[in-house]
Every structure is written in C-alpha cells, then in structure tokens.
Design goal:
By secondary structure, the chain is of the alpha+beta class. The chain is built from one helix and seven strands; from the N terminus they run E-E-E-E-E-E-E-H.
Length: 117
Amino acid sequence: MHTHSNMKASDRYVVKDAACLVDGERMPVANLSVGGLYAVTDRPPIAGQVVSLELALPEHSPLHIRGQVTWVNENGKRYTHMPPGFGIKITHISFVDKLALLGFLRRARLERARGEQ
C-alpha cells in the first residue's frame, strides 16, 4: 500500500550537503523542492532577476538549472527565522536533471518520514 501522496512542486525539504553555484559563488541550499530552492548568501541577486546555476547534490553530477529570483531575505530582515538569502523558482531544467532532482527529493522525503516515526 502506498502511504505517501505524490510530490508537489511546493513540497519543501530541508536538505543537507546541497549547494548551488551562481556566478562563481558557492552557496548552501537551505531548502529544496521540485519547483525551486532557497540559497543562503549575504549577497543575493535582485528579485525578478533570471539566473543560471549549478545545483550540487550529494553523489550526483551538478544539475544545470535556470530560474527566477522570486524573493530576497536581505540580512534576514524579511524572515528572521531564516538566514539571509533568496528563493528561486525553477523555470528550466532538463528532463534528465529533473529526474535526478526527483530521486534526491524522494530519498529526502523517506528519511524525513523515518525520523517522524
């Protein structure tokens, strides 16, 4: 019996050891979903900006993503419970990279479910 619902683009997962590379700067990824991510940095891009990035996941070659900066948490002012950084909505990802991202998130979901038991 399948106990988990299908993964939605809005399902966010706190991830360990994931990072993204934007304009040569490596930034930790605080959370990740099928539809986007939150990157931690003191020097975020401007909201609305389109960026190309590499997403580095454990045990996988980098995923190439293009996305739009949807919001910025400059100096942690917007959300004090989150580190400074920015959110990106993924606008382009290859089919192969999307499959790799889905596999990574499925594993993260299973680990989270085991931790809640």
